[in-house]
Amino acid sequence: MDAKRTHPKASQHAVDLDAACRQRRAKADHVVTLLTAGDPLADAVIAELDLYGPQARNALDAGLRHGLTSVDRPLPAAVTALLREVEATPAWVDPLLLHRGDVVSQSVPPMWFALCSITCALAYGYASPATARVLAGTGRPEDTAARRLAETGVWVRQTIRPGGLLRGRPGYVATVEARLAHARTRATSLTEWDRGARGLPVGQLDMARTWLGFTLVAFQALTAVGIDISPEEERSLYRYWSYVAHLLGLDERLHQDVVDHAGARRLRHLLDSLTAAPDENSTTMTAAMAGAQAHSMAEAPGAVLSEEQLRHLIDSVLRQACGEEWAVRLGIHGTPADLDLMPLIKQLNRQARHWQTYSSASAQEARRRSLEGSRPELRAAALACDTSCRRNAGAVRPEAWAA
After folding, report:
1. How far apart are CA 71 and CA 65, in angstroms?
2. Stated pTM of the model
3. Distance, CA of 100 to CA of 237 (rounded, Å)
4. Any idea what DSSP says for residue 166?
5. Cβ atoms within 10 A of the Cβ of 348, count?
6. In this model, does residue 85 exceed pLDDT 80?
7. Residue 331: domain span
8. 217 assigned to some structural domain
9. For the chain, what is the domain count?
């Protein structure tokens, strides 16, 4: 006879529920305090780079690529503190995970990774008026969107590659540089920012939206085109991206208990409740980004869809990933029935995904092909990204600091 399963008493249920409610209320209260929070350490580094000049920038570059101990001269206090922080890998990080990279994202074919992960992550960020307003003021929306697509594509592909986040590797360096670029943007935009506006430009909550963009939102989009992942793959994805969040300077209390899509949806609901509705800057940047992505993919060697078909496909994916309400606010239109390829695409991708994950050998081969397929994109955009990241993170004055 099977042993009878024991159930918690009603009082125990009440205690557990009460504790869970208190924990969620505490997190919600903390998130509210982050509406005007930046990244104090990165902000201090930007101030030091401006104060001490190119020598500080060069020393920081050397420290990122070769380690703090490789720098044979005194460093400014904030630069030293930043290098110590990013070099101190948290105890919860699995070293094997870093050596393997983000195997879940690696398994996504390059075309779908670009169309779903990168496009939808950017759109979710643009849905925040604070982010969209800053970007809309940096030049023509079409030019800004194309540049951001290239830079983001390089960064995320460097980040997910095997060993990409190991100390000194391209993904590690690029992620810390992105953190400093955010701080640079805050420093330059706050001079004209309306302090009465809701939130802080590129603050903690917008950085959390970026993080959710490449986890929850991206994989909602991939599900829409028939590329599903298992519960274990979900957990692996969030374990890896928790370390990305650490390097980006995201407040740990925002992501430490997000271990799967369910937890990410709770965080997204909380962030969305604190974020103003998309405005005209949001719709402008989203449209420019979707247009730039469709044009780029239509011009790629071997493209089989026209720019118009790709634009309709991108709009369909964005509606699925962002939800109907946000899609309408972002000006994302529905796709005409005669141009809607989603049902066919979803069926074909599910069939392909089945055979790609049929065995460990086929899954490894799928990851290998995906990584190889991304190399031309990396080569094409690497120079532009590196130049822009340095310009945004390290605008300096010519003085040198005194030891």
Report:
1. 10
2. 0.80
3. 12
4. S
5. 13
6. yes
7. 40-393
8. yes
9. 1
